[in-house]
């Protein structure tokens, strides 16, 4: 659907809030998360690309927020998506922190069946610390499904070394150990040749690639990780999942509870297939429990897991928290300039949809 956009973001969204959310521990190199929130006809939405992302990449995040808020009409979802469920299972997320912090971090998530642990914060040099952290995790939770995420920080050779070291922990999958799709495909072939029981999942190779379906075309992974904001919205994410034909896990981009609500909506509508049951089980856990990593959120309680699940709902921020967590005027101006730059990129590109495979 083609929609004529106003000349400026301010014409479409005259009022918005910029917040700084403190975290309970360093994650992805940050101890505070800056987010922009605004309200549209359908409710509140979040625009929160990481600070280092440029306008062209961040424009997809803006499109997702505008669609979720109802400022822009959402693209039609593909046929065959499932009816939405009322809640979704989530995994705990364990940052790359010292062993002494593992138990307290996991305790924040309560009872969960799946844990995703970050590894490779400093590439292969982090391997001894990663192994120590995983041994402690397995001591505390010997029966949970375990996922690892390297955020593409290994070379091909390092990824092989790390995979051999991690294989004994009984992984559900290993997410994005190497950057490129071609190396990911090579790694999967080599792991199979060595008989290592390590399944690969693609994240950056989906959300940062010009052709997100190349992962499926090359057989580079068995699972795709999808995130609503980076992919340009829920409908765009559903198309990628449908066209790839691969089991999918919905994950957060370290959003506030407002942003997590969009991810939960997507996760609740994903079909459960024979392939997803084999790898992910009957109720695939999504990576949307990350509100537990914030010391302060936009509501209290936030969209945090209870009994390993979060509800599928929309979140309206607490007005008092909008005031208490507001960024300083300098950061507000920075985000004002940034969103207008993204608006220009959005208007010029109109974000064409990912290519479809015949």
Structure description:
The structure is a single chain. The protein has 358 residues and is α/β, with parallel strands linked by helices. The protein has helices at 9-12, 55-69, 99-107, 127-140, 156-166, 181-193, 204-207, 214-217, 228-231, 234-244, 257-267, 274-280, 319-324, 329-349; strands spanning 17-27, 30-40, 43-47, 87-89, 92-94, 114-118, 121-124, 145-149, 171-175, 200-202, 223-226, 248-250, 309-311. This is O-succinylbenzoate synthase. Residues 95-194 form the Mandelate racemase/muconate lactonizing enzyme C-terminal domain.
List keywords for this structure.
358 residues; 3-stranded antiparallel sheet; globular; Enolase-like, domain 1; 37% helix; TIM Barrel; alpha/beta; disordered C terminus; 2 domains; 14 helices
Topology overview:
Elements lengths: L8 H4 L4 E11 L2 E11 L2 E5 L7 H15 L17 E3 L2 E3 L4 H9 L6 E5 L2 E4 L2 H14 L4 E5 L6 H11 L4 E5 L5 H13 L6 E3 L1 H4 L6 H4 L5 E4 L1 H4 L2 H11 L3 E3 L6 H11 L6 H7 L28 E3 L7 H6 L4 H21 L9
Parallel strand pairs: 5-6, 6-8, 8-9, 9-10, 10-11, 11-12
Antiparallel strand pairs: 1-2, 2-3, 4-13
Helix pairs in contact: 2-14, 5-6, 10-11
Keywords: Metal-binding
Protein name: O-succinylbenzoate synthase
Pfam families: Enolase_like_N, MR_MLE_C
As residue ranges, the low-confidence spans are: 351-358
Total of helices: 14
Domain module tally: 2
Strand order of the largest sheet: 5-6-8-9-10-11-12
Largest sheet, if any? 7 strands, parallel
Instruction: Count every beta strand, where a strand is a DSSP E run of 2 or more residues.
Output: 13
Rg result: 20 Å
- The CATH architecture of the largest domain would be Alpha-Beta Barrel
InterPro entries: Enolase-like_C_sf, Enolase_C-like, Mandelate_racemase_C
Organism: Brevibacterium ammoniilyticum
Keywords: Metal-binding
Pfam family, one: Enolase_like_N
């Amino acid at each position: 659907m083609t929609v004529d956009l106003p000349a400026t973001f301010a014409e479409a969204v005259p009022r918005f809030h910029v917040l700084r959310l403190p975290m309970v521990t360093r994650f992805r190199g940050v101890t505070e998360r800056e987010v922009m929130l605004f309200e549209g006809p359908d409710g509140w939405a979040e625009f929160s690309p990481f600070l280092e992302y440029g306008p062209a990449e961040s424009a997809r995040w803006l499109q997702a927020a505008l669609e979720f808020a109802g400022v822009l009409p959402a693209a039609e979802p593909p046929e065959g998506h499932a009816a939405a469920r009322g809640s979704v299972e989530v995994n705990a997320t364990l940052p790359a922190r010292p062993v002494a912090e593992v138990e307290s971090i996991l305790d924040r998530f309560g009872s969960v069946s799946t844990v995703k642990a970050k590894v490779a914060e400093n590439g292969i040099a982090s391997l001894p610390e990663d192994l120590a952290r995983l041994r402690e995790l397995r001591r505390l939770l010997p029966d949970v499904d375990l996922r690892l995420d390297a955020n593409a920080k290994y070379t091909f050779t390092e990824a092989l070394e790390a995979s051999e070291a991690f294989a004994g922990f009984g992984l559900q999958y290993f997410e994005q150990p190497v950057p490129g799709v071609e190396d990911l495909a090579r790694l999967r072939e080599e792991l199979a040749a060595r008989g290592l029981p390590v399944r690969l999942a693609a994240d950056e190779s989906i959300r940062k690639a010009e052709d997100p379906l190349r992962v499926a075309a090359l057989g580079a992974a068995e699972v795709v990780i999808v995130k609503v904001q980076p992919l340009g919205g829920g409908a765009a994410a559903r198309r990628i999942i449908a066209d790839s034909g691969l089991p999918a896990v919905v994950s957060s981009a370290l959003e506030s509870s407002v942003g997590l609500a969009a991810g939960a909506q997507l996760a609740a509508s994903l079909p459960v297939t024979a392939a997803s049951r084999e790898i992910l089980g009957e109720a695939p856990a999504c990576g949307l429990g990350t509100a537990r990593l914030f010391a302060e959120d936009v509501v209290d309680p936030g969209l945090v897991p209870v009994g390993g699940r979060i509800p599928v709902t929309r979140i309206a921020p607490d007005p008092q928290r909008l005031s208490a967590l507001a960024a300083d005027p300098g950061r507000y101006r920075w985000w004002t300039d940034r969103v207008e730059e993204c608006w220009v990129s959005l208007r010029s590109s109109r974000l064409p949809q990912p290519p479809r495979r015949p």
